[in-house]
What we know:
The chain is of the alpha+beta class. Among the domains are: 1-6 and 426-457 and 613-766, Aldehyde oxidase/xanthine dehydrogenase, molybdopterin binding domain (Aldehyde Oxidoreductase, domain 4, 2-Layer Sandwich), CATH 3.30.365.10; 464-608, Aldehyde oxidase/xanthine dehydrogenase, molybdopterin binding domain (Aldehyde Oxidoreductase, domain 4, 2-Layer Sandwich). It is built from 21 helices and 29 strands. The strands form 7 sheets. The protein has a 7-stranded mixed sheet with strand order 4-8-2-15-12-13-14, with helices on both faces. Strand 27 and strand 28 form a beta hairpin. Helix 7 packs across helix 8 and helix 11 runs parallel beside helix 20 (725-737). The radius of gyration is 27 Å and the shape is globular. The mean pLDDT is 96. This is Oxidoreductase. One of its GO terms (molecular function) is oxidoreductase activity.
Amino acid sequence: MSEHRPNTEGKYKWIGTRPERPDGADKVTGRARFGADFSLPGQLIGKVLRSPHAHAVIKSIDTSKALALNGVKAVITAQDFPDQPNLIVPTGEMQVNMRDITRNIMAREKALYEGHPVAAVAAVSEAIAKQALSLIKVDYEVLPHVIDVAEAMKPDAPILHDHLLTEGANPPASKPSNIAKRIEFKKGDAKAGFAQAQVVIEKDYTTQAVHQGYIEPHATLASAAEDGQIQVWSTTQGHFQVRGFCARLLGLETSQIRVTPTEIGGGFGGKTVVYLEPLAMRLSQKSGKPVKMTMAREDVFRASGPAPGGNVKVKIGAMRDGRIVAAECIVEMQAGAFPGSPVGPACMCSFACYDIDNVYIEGFDVVSNRPKVAAYRAPGAPISAWAVESTLDILAQELDMDPIDLRLKNAAKEGTKTAYGVTFNTIGMVETLEAIRDSEHYKSPVKPGYGRGVAAGFWFNIGADSSAASHVGEDGSVTVISGNPDIGGSRASLALMAAEELGVDYNKVRPIIADTASIGFNFVTGGSRVTFATGLAVVNSVRDMIRELKVRAAKIWKIDPEAVIWEGGMAKPAGNQVGTFEPLSLADLAAQAGRTGGPINGHAQLNVTGAGPGFGVHCVDLKVDEDTGCVHVGRYTAAQDVGTAIHPSYVEGQLQGGAVQGIGWALNEEYIYNAKGKLDNPGFLDYRMPVASDLPKIETILVEVPNPQHPYGVRGVGEVPIIPPIAAVGNAVARATGVRMVDLPMSPPRLSEALDAARPMKMAAE
């Protein structure tokens, strides 16, 4: 069951409708071409040799026997890539250092995690490539390793990087540490606030690294030509970013690289990073042949970026009436082998749902011998929300308050200033809480044996650089060209906005995703930016085209262009005083384009600001088998302020998908390392993701509070849905069992152990 609460009833013809998706037929018939589906004549197969050690000095690499093997055409190591400067660059919602990227794609001085690439080969067959890997001899000096974030922070922990001094340390750092960075945010006086509080709740929480769970492994095909030009096909969330990173890593100009994005079988932030692309490009350059590379599922787990785990300490002080007067959050977050965890967003999002006068937030970015983390839907925010929203539930129980009422009493609204400095404009936190409170789900009684949990979540949403073009075809159709891979329905949303703006039938609009040589720069598909930011570029390109259409109509009618209006998909005279002319449709104007000035196009390029932040509230009913610790999720409802639901079915899918991923994160998913620093569950058999039979139908409530900074009120919707579920599930488990879990995942063994430990105390209390 889904409910759509539009603020725009009857306002639009196409926006808010549910037409067929433009890529739907290709997807369901198998015609869509994903990364591994691309091949070229004469291509070679590339394979990567990966470190078996979690931490080891690379003393030497001997590739001579591999190069001598018949059928091997190229071998590369770190020596084939120029070293990079200490330069921070953005990647999706996170930031990375170019010095670190070149060491992540190919280990240089040390291997820093199991699975770290140390060499790669290109051969005429997969079998020969694998044989070649076995002939490469690497002399390692194995070092002590550290996996856990708390252990990595200790003064006597094995140091990953001898040059790494803690940025932001107070007092300034004087010796190397695994703590790459310390950050803090302050609002008011937290110490004074806690002194004023009548109730103070303090709790420590832990989370584990989890995988984004995309079904399609990483894949790329690179073809280097004799003139220095390189074509690349890649499964990626940002082909302009692939071009930019690879140009730096290979010492090329961006103009030498043309990247075409393939269809993408899931990404969720995990495909905003380059792994295989620079390797395939260098192998192609050295061999003179196209090189295709794909990751096995084990490689994906061992060597691509998961979402981080970490430790979070939360302290909340309130008055007896429920008003929160002070809040504190300390986040220690795994970055993996190189600095750059999403600790910043985790800190900034922690209390952003609430209007609190006194706040102190501190975060630590910590390296350890794991793969460098990558983004995963609202990176960092689910981790801090797990801790904050769980603590709020404890507070609600302590005050004997309804958990929705507690949140409503403290909810952020227009004019609320956040701890990270931003003052909110029009937002929908209150409306979203009210939507859950008034839902049939929340009003229904909790079934015997079940517990009900609620939690809220916030994400900024982003804008950034976007380009788009619109073209009128000879038959009066419209092609809309953008530069963002479609991972969340952006083809449909862009086409709907173009149809609405033009006043033409949606089926007359064809959305195209162009390669890096065919459209201006676009930032990555991530941060819930595409429908908002690239959508604004599309709207502006259509408006540019409409200006030209009015000029063409004016030429035909021999009147001033300002005397022409565009209405209902047609050029019309602005009034009777202008003259009596029959309206001209797109097809009419296209038919006469040759004699009025040539092809009719529109373009737009802008650095988009004004992204409206998103808020969501989730409610879950579940029961726990007290013997096994297994959790059965019986009912789930996700409500979110979606701005304007351009294509409601896609928006509902975003909410449902985020809820499912959050449920998995809460109950089962985790990276499990053994004593040697090796990952014990690098595959979907042992890494337990939820499947359909584990879940109820996810109900959704789409609350529309339009973003005033967008002509159609768009807010990004893809990040927020993964933030509340973990805490909502944890709160429901606590209310169902009386046992408060603070460590993720709440898997059957962990939950069963906690229930067993609590049983004697329960019996004594009875």
